[in-house]
Amino acid sequence: ELQQKVQEVELLKMELQMLETERVRLSLVEEKLMDVLQLLQQLRDLNVSKRALGKILLSTLESCRDPQPGKAQLFEVLDTLQQELAACELLHRQPMEQAQSPRSLSNPLVISC
To answer: Which member of 46, 73, 81, 111 lies 3.0 to 4.6 Å from 60 by CB, making a disulfide possible if both were Cys?
Structure first.
């Protein structure tokens, strides 16, 4: 009976470790998603066309068509999308006054449709 309890404890420890690993992974995905949403908000504020945003998204999906080994595909797509959005030349051309002005929205990540 003692051996069975030891095995159960070991199983619970392994499950806890797997849950912690998943929590960390989800945390990383959440951070990357927040970065993407912030960039989308900035582009929306600059009135970037839907066509331009669509091209960025299609470019991202095209570059992630063949997943790299050892890299989670969801995180890879989010990471690539974040890089594509950050590289958008319109973000780098905005006037300094606009870049430094405080946001009027209480939550800058809310994107209205």
So the answer is: 81
